[in-house]
Amino acid sequence: MSNIWYLESVNLFNILCPHKFKAYKESHEFTKYNKTDYIYFEDDVANKVFLITDGKVKLGYYTKEGDEIVKAILSKGEVFGEKAILGEDKRNEFAQSINNKTSICPINASTLQELIQDNKKFALGFYKFINFRIKRLERRLQLLLFKDTKTRLQEFLLELCDDYGVDCEKTGDKIIVHPYTQKDIACLIGTSRPTLNIIMNELKDDGVIEFDRKTIKLL
Question: Into how many domains does the chain fold?
Fold first, then answer.
């Protein structure tokens, strides 16, 4: 699982999900979404936090011209909508399922606040997680504004390596087994899929990476 979830040795997903708690278990249900279904829209009331128990979710917003800007693509074990407990009254982004059979664990903001008050170790881990998420988003926006596409891709690959990379004992290379499609990666670095393919093949020809559908090897 992504190192996002192991902060101060706290497994946030196992602690956070209300079905782990007797007081909330009976009234707690998972919600299912199909591909292109929206979990929430911009300007919706922000009163819940969501955990992904299966599938993938895209976060983003639309410009005045109608262009879609993708902020993040999250997968199993990740949290979104967390600003509902930080004073946000309305959503400033949309959240959309991008594959079939996405399963979401919704948590009322009031419930989460109770859990934070009752578990100091979890509260510390959760707020560190939020700080980590904000810093990563700021970093990605800086790349989109000031760096060329090839640099954005290389920086993104380093992020993937941090989250999903393992060492290859025989060669010393980093092997990344990740949940993203090429379309996902293209959206996240602000380019087209054909351009992404060109740059990835350039990096392959230069001996920087090797890749297939779900695996990237940093040489």
Answer: 2
Average pLDDT estimate for 180-196: 88
pLDDT digits (tens, 9 = 90+) for 108-161: 888 778 777 877 777 777 777 777 777 877 777 777 777 899 999 998 898 888
Please report the DSSP string for 107-141 in residue order. Answer: EEHHHHHHHHHH-HHHHHHHHHHHHHHHHHHHHHH
The two three-digit tokens of residue 49, written as one number: 């936090």
The Cα 58–Cα 72 span in angstroms is 6
Specify whether 71 is located in the same domain as 169: no
**Sheet of strand 56-62, all strands in order from the earlier edge strand to the far edge:** 38-40, 94-97, 56-62, 68-75
208 and 114 within one domain: no
What distance in Å separates the CA atoms of residue 150 and residue 189, rounded to the nearest whole number? 9
CATH code of the domain in which 112 resides: 2.60.120.10
Ranges 10-14, 32-36, 101-105, 159-163: which has the least confidence: 10-14
User: Could you tell me if 12 and 97 lie in one domain?
Assistant: yes
End of a domain among 125, 141, 157?
141
Where among 92, 107, 141 does a domain terminate?
141
214 vs 58, more confident:
58
How far apart CA 200 and CA 216 sit, in angstroms, is 10
